[in-house]
């Protein structure tokens, strides 16, 4: 087979890696001029850890772990009012890994010796009996046996084949924004979290970073505008060091800004075109499972393709559907604890975090909190291909 993958994100690069291991000819087209660097830190849990192990890249991923140690909750004056382990805060246990998205992409690309077309994209496609004819943004045309849309929440391939994004996007009523700060903010493998009703600010510095990253999570703004303008309105009159972070965000070259959304579809394929990762079943950053879904989905799709093209997409969907449903369900539940609606709830959460290390049966309390994440992360029986 000759397969085109649109998108050099986690799903696309992981799929390319697996397909090349099986001897398939692969081309990856990516609109950006180079591999996207940076981004927020992401978790790899449960079944996804096993996918990395089977792919021979787990140890390389462990070499670039964030190694963040603690999360400090701060008040408006910057005082640290509660502290907890970063692994406990992130719901990680056992072999779970936290890594910066850009670092994971580099590991996956190094493992995927395929043809890359950077600075180009799928402009149009036509699915026919002899394959899928693709016209690229550059004007070039080629025919592929299969085209995979791994191009994210705003997937162009999905739009060309399945229709408008609004049919499939389920907004959770919040936005997320992140940028790289030039300052380390006095942090060394730590993160600071400051909460106000309807908005949360997180600043963290991972191992090996010169600066830090600032992340904003907040209720969706009522008025449109440029990302920096919406961010400024959403955090107007905020305390702590939020005003200076918002001002720096407006000057940042890597400012990311988007809604917190799920993608829900009744089917992920049509003809010889199939979707994987966020393009098919985005779980949003609130789930903490988007990266794991991408890794597992790529593994299953690649395995089913090499078992035989006939029926491959149906088998892929059958194996993945319950896993996707379980992990998407985490998003809305998690979001309620990430962005609190009142000062009373913030006070109560902070108080409980301060008391947690001293509670009898502390470990059992933590297990109950993390159980839904653990259950969703392992909610698939990975086949051997």
Automatic annotation (TrEMBL):
GO terms for molecular function: FAD binding. Residues 2-312 form the FAD-binding domain. It comes from the Bacteria. InterPro entries: FAD-bd, FAD/NAD-bd_sf, FAD_aromatic-hydroxylase. Gene3D superfamilies: D-Amino Acid Oxidase, subunit A, domain 2, FAD/NAD(P)-binding domain. SUPFAM superfamilies: FAD/NAD(P)-binding domain. PANTHER family: MONOOXYGENASE, OXIDOREDUCTASE-RELATED. This is 2-polyprenyl-6-methoxyphenol hydroxylase-like FAD-dependent oxidoreductase. It comes from Saccharothrix variisporea.
């Amino acid at each position: 087979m000759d397969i085109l993958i649109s998108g050099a994100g986690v799903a696309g690069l992981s799929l390319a890696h697996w397909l090349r291991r099986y001897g398939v000819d692969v081309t990856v087209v990516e609109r950006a001029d180079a591999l996207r660097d940076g981004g927020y830190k992401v978790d790899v849990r449960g079944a996804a850890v096993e996918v990395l192990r089977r792919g021979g890249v787990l140890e390389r991923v462990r070499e670039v772990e964030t190694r963040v140690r603690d999360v400090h909750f701060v008040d408006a004056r910057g005082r640290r009012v509660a502290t907890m382990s970063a692994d406990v805060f992130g719901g990680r246990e056992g072999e779970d890994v936290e890594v910066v998205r850009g670092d994971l992409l580099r590991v996956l690309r190094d493992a995927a010796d395929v043809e890359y077309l950077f600075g180009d994209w799928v402009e149009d496609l036509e699915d026919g009996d002899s394959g899928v004819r693709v016209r690229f943004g550059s004007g070039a045309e080629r025919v592929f046996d299969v085209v995979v849309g791994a191009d994210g929440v705003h997937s162009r391939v999905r739009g060309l084949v399945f229709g408008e994004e609004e049919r499939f996007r389920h907004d959770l009523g919040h936005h997320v924004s992140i940028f790289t700060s030039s300052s380390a903010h006095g942090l060394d493998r730590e993160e600071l979290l400051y909460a106000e009703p309807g908005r949360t600010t997180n600043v963290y510095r991972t191992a090996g970073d010169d600066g830090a990253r600032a992340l904003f999570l907040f209720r969706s703004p009522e008025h449109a505008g440029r990302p920096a303008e919406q961010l400024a309105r959403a955090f107007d009159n905020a305390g702590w060091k939020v005003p200076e972070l918002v001002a720096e965000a407006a000057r940042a070259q890597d400012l990311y800004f988007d809604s917190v959304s799920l993608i829900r579809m009744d089917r992920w394929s049509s003809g010889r075109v199939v979707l994987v990762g966020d393009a098919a079943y985005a779980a949003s950053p609130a789930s903490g499972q988007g990266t794991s879904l991408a890794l597992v989905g790529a593994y299953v799709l690649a395995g089913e393709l090499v078992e035989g093209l006939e029926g491959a997409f149906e088998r892929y969907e059958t194996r993945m559907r319950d896993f996707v449903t379980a992990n998407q369900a985490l998003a809305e539940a998690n979001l309620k604890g990430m962005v609190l609606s009142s000062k009373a709830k913030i006070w109560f959460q902070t108080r409980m975090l301060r008391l947690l290390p001293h509670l009898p049966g502390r470990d059992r309390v933590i297990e109950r909190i993390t159980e839904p994440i653990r259950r969703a992360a392992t909610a698939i029986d990975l086949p051997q291909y």
